[in-house]
Amino acid sequence: MDTALDTPLRFVIHSDFAEGRQVQHAILEEITRHHFGPDATFAIRLALEEALINAIKHGNKFDPNKVVRVEASITPQIAEIIVEDEGTGFQRACVPDPTTDENVERIHGRGVMLIESYMDEVNWQSGGRRIRMVRRNDDAGR
Amino acid sequence: MSESPARLNVTQQKDVSIVEFTENKILDEMNITEIGQALDVIVQSKDRPKLLLDFANVDHLSSAALGMLINVNTKLKQQNGQLRLASIRPQIMEVFVITKLNRLFRISATRAEAFGSFE
Hints:
By secondary structure, chain A is an alpha+beta fold.
């Protein structure tokens, strides 16, 4: 069991995609180290990508004076990731369903839905500035 | 043939432009913008364009990539063109199904099948 390093990973980054990419790499390395299966790894990569884009672009609006905080607690069984921005937040209920006939050709608006589809638990907190998402490792113990 | 970024292989077969994504991830916003611009050039260069996108190498894409594909599809329709997607891996196909974009796009299992489906 990889228990010695199971303390949360914590990052504070600028509103910059390149820095977001480094965070993704670090977290996905941990996911690999804990032997997450391919489906869970795919889900976490996708959800993390979407959450970081939301925080950097839509939350902080690339403001260099604002930061994004990321925390990841990863064990062989479960990954819990929190992404928090310093924007004005958003109301989840106000994000239109991108799968309806009138919205399916809209260019934006699928990130939130993909996160919620691929992660086992998703909580929007702090007025939409903070997302907590959890994904279990389907392959744990195999 | 128009110039294309390094992350795309573009070939012309009869009247169909076949675009193969050479990288396995279509995630980065900068890359997606660049790909979208390159596809725009192909679409705008022809009357009734036929565009086949081959996803055989792609194992990750983001919602921004989906938005880019919708944009390309809209422009093609404006020019009475046709778009086909081919060789999408199962994990990526699931993304299309979840977002119900499998109903918007015509998706074929293979490049040959997609090529044969143009009208």
